[in-house]
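Dear support,

I submitted the protein below through the web form. The confirmation email said the job was done, but the results page showed an empty box. After a refresh the structure appeared. I'm attaching both so you can tell me whether what I see now is the final result or a partial one.
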Amino acid sequence: MKDLGAEHLAGREGVQLLGLLNLYLEQEERFQPREKGLSLIEATPENDNTLCPGLRNAKVEDLRSLANFFGSCTETFVLAVNILDRFLALMKVKPKHLSCIGVCSFLLAARIVEEDCNIPSTHDVIRISQCKCTASDIKRMEKIISEKLHYELEATTALNFLHLYHTIILCHTSERKEILSLDKLEAQLKACNCRLVFSKAKPSVLALCLLNLEVETLKSVELLEILLLVKKHSKINDTEFFYWRELVSKCLAEYSSPECCKPDLKKLVWIVSRRTAQNLHNSYYSVPELPTIPEGGCFDESERDGAGQL
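What the results page shows now:
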């Protein structure tokens, strides 16, 4: 099979696309959550005092709802999940601090991605999320998260690969450009983000699996051949690819089932006026309910290297 090279793309744009793809491939591992930490969360049974997969997944669902409420873009949500998971995989977090960490992850992502006029205020996010913490709690937790992630918050995510792969396909194909819906692919990615297991997948692989499954439903030989070239250029081996494609396929099957609450089926109907929002559960943000957040102590080396606790 021919390699995917600049000669197979359209001139200068092709060179730029491949250069960006190579950059993303170099960076992706650096911004992935620690697999050891994710595995520990996965292995944790439901318990009031420990963080389990169900609590993490529920918090990501909350982030999705929060992003929808404030009209934030998909990139903000995906980055917020990345920040959240990288921090959870690094630190031993107690469930009572999870709401505060989730809100902070959303605010940090919004400040990176959104235009200034679209960044919600800390007080508004506290009120709408009902996270039971104060602005000072948020400020302190944001500092802890930023420090633990070495202020490297702007990450290369599966969404970056999804957009880039989509653009590369459109540069190659002679088929109608609207045949491959980016909105649908983004919705499917958000469904995967709501499950902890997909944070263990390489972003490049997760994005390629989503595109591959969608192209298969379109029964397009041309698009499939382009994807195979992308897969080869990205050095994604068959074992890894088919393993994650199977998991993605199962997730999307459940996501599209009648029993599943689809993330993007419709906009949230919980719309309140600013006046109402200002009075919404006022006690939740005027009275601190969280105890002082202790920081210190490390995981045992056999658990998570270089980790701390909250």
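Response: this is the final, complete result; the empty box was a page-load delay. The radius of gyration is 20 Å.
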